[in-house]
């Protein structure tokens, strides 16, 4: 009986001890071992949740700090998040806990000291991309030594070794130390230069110092030019040959520029042939050939003179043909008036001033076969600096004052000359409302820079524009070779709209006389040898010109005026 009670007591004790042991194992499974540090952060004895919160709190600032990737004296900051670097606190804590019944491991868990690394998530694709981008800044190409020539003096420039980031090894280096280290030395390959200090000393002695030692005399056949070292120094440099030796180099264009600067009249520029108006008629101005310095082999011959005696070199003059020959200008066959048109303008001194400036600029304009004429390109912006004055223009259906008012009368006159010459009209814009001194549906305004008149010379011959003012008349004549006859047929007015009456007391008001708005079509008829070959319709829409009465009364203003510039 006693024995049974003893066995039962032992069994009960074993069960109690086993339960306690199992409970301890379960407890330890959810807690970090005593005295454990993760990347220097104490988390020993903490529950999984406590350890996770502690790591995230301590590491919050560390994960935001950039990685300073360095090569020599250059540094590029890489943002960890963008580079695919993350701390995996969940995996880190999971590696520190876990269930075990091994008494030795349980004892170590209760009493041991351990240091564990952080678990990371690294996106190697993103990190490689970030390091590759940083390498664009960190890489430094090899710089071969040279000799510079400035202000008549020589200066040796030492060689500098080159460095190139090795991407793969640098990616591994960053991943292995982050986030413990913020500064990482990039892994690089060093490239040694070919030019040694001894080679720079040799070149300086053998040709650099002699090159700067005295002036060089240049003989051109008719002139003698003495170039001082400071004058030709910008043309000198050194280059590396295949054997790694420095050679003296002479830049031919810069040498020619130095000679021209020292003797400005040594060359004569060619003059292109052209056609000009002489006594009111076109006349060919023949081309004139020029001369230029003969650059062939000039570099080698000048280089030889720098290290020889006497320091003299011959650089002759070669013919410089014009781009446009006399034969080319003759082929344009600008010989007769192919169209002419005249308009009258009212008395308005500022407006007349603007017309005269524009006409003087337009007169003599040459349009080669196939080229396009642009009135804005020919006249440029109308400004006070060019002498233009403020005069009435049309803006948003009302008359206002602006620089260049009146130039649209020049545009309309030119447009009609182009219309009756039969050239291809590319761009034109009618005035917003009808102006009685212009032909209905056959006129063109102009405004800088967006409202233009453009047409292409498709006659097969050249066109020369003759423009002049006589009294109150503007006449534009196009000279060339006549290949077609042009007639204009105007249709009836359509969709007539009557103007309104406006009373305006604002400063700067310009009075207007009423004119109805309407639509009209003008047909351009092409004839050759009396037979019609084609027609081109021009459709124009005019808005009404409202009657504007300014109060208080202002001085009279010419009722018919000019649209935007």
What does this structure look like?
The structure is a single chain. The chain has 565 residues and is an alpha+beta fold. The protein has 14 helices and 36 strands. The longest helix has 28 residues, at 2-29. Mean pLDDT is 85; it is low at 16-28, 98-102, 104-110 and 557-565.
What's a quick, concise take on this entry?
By secondary structure, the chain is an alpha+beta fold. The chain is 28% helix and 31% strand.
Keywords:
Ubiquitin-like (UB roll), alpha+beta, disordered C terminus, flat, four-stranded antiparallel sheet, 565 residues
Present the secondary structure layout.
Blueprint: H1 2-29, E1 36-38, E2 41-42, H2 48-59, E3 67-71, E4 74-78, E5 85-87, H3 89-94, H4 103-111, E6 114-116, E7 120-122, H5 124-138, E8 146-150, E9 153-157, E10 162-165, H6 167-177, E11 183-185, E12 188-191, H7 197-211, E13 216-219, E14 224-227, H8 229-232, E15 236-240, E16 246-250, H9 252-262, E17 274-278, E18 281-285, E19 290-293, H10 298-306, E20 312-314, E21 317-320, H11 326-331, E22 336-344, H12 349-362, E23 366-367, E24 372-374, H13 375-379, E25 390-395, E26 398-403, H14 407-421, E27 424-427, E28 454-456, E29 463-470, E30 473-480, E31 485-490, E32 494-497, E33 501-504, E34 517-528, E35 531-542, E36 547-550
Parallel strand pairs: 1-6, 3-11, 13-20, 33-36
Antiparallel strand pairs: 1-2, 3-4, 5-7, 8-9, 10-12, 13-14, 15-16, 17-18, 19-21, 22-30, 23-29, 24-28, 25-26, 27-28, 29-30, 31-34, 32-34, 34-35
Helix pairs in contact: 5-6
